[in-house]
């Protein structure tokens, strides 16, 4: 990943926080038929990413393969009109702000039904937490759950390296950064408020 020094993010709390808040990953691997990419949620547990895929997925046949998991955080277009320096010099151009985390590791296929069920219960409990009446795996008939477990395999990726790129206007002076935050909040498009909040936290030195 192209990584200018201004945008390097190494704080574990920030990297792990992005994975927690944006768990839907793109997992890239090199298969016999070429490079393949699959998309599914992953959780970070004790130095490893855990998830599951359908038994028919090509990843289910790639035990031991080296993979790259990409987690995409908030992102948005940035107008040069938001920079105070633009009015002075006209030497500003559009860009895109975003935060991403790349995780590299070795793929392990898990066939253990108890491991899989525990994973599904954790994922479900996490994502159902905001529902008025959260659905739980135990709400489904046992025979139905058993049948579904037979149709999937577990994915475990032992983390060998993790790198973050948080491109949040750090290469601009403070007044431009504050201008971008104000512009995002004023525009109020999909994800704009979240990206503005991430930028504001960075200004405050928070993860």
Automatic annotation (TrEMBL):
Pfam families from the UniProt entry: FMN_bind_2
Signal sequence annotation: none
Xref: InterPro entries: Split_barrel_FMN-bd (IPR012349), TR_PAI2-type (IPR007396)
Identification of the protein by name: FMN-binding negative transcriptional regulator
Family matches, as Gene3D superfamilies: Electron Transport, Fmn-binding Protein, Chain A
Lineage top rank: taxon: Bacteria
Source species taxonomy: Bacteria, Pseudomonadati, Pseudomonadota, Gammaproteobacteria, Lysobacterales
């Amino acid at each position: 990943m192209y990584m200018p020094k201004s945008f390097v993010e190494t704080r574990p709390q920030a990297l792990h926080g992005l994975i927690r808040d944006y768990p839907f990953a793109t997992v890239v691997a090199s298969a016999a038929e070429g490079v393949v990419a699959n998309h599914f949620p992953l959780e970070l547990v004790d130095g490893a990413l855990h998830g599951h895929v359908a038994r028919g997925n090509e990843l289910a046949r790639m035990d031991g393969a080296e993979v790259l998991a990409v987690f995409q955080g908030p992102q948005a277009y940035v107008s040069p009109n938001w920079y105070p320096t633009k009015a002075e010099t006209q030497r500003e151009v559009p860009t895109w702000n975003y935060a991403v985390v790349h995780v590299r590791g070795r793929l392990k296929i898990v066939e253990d039904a108890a491991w899989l069920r525990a994973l599904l219960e954790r994922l479900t409990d996490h994502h159902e937490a905001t529902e008025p009446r959260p659905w739980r795996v135990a709400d489904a008939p046992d025979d139905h759950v058993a049948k579904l477990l037979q149709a999937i395999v577990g994915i475990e990726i032992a983390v060998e390296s993790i790198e973050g790129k948080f491109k949040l206007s750090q290469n601009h002076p403070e007044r431009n950064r504050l201008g971008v935050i104000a512009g995002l909040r004023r525009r109020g498009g999909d994800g704009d408020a979240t990206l503005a909040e991430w930028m504001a936290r960075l200004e405050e030195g928070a993860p």
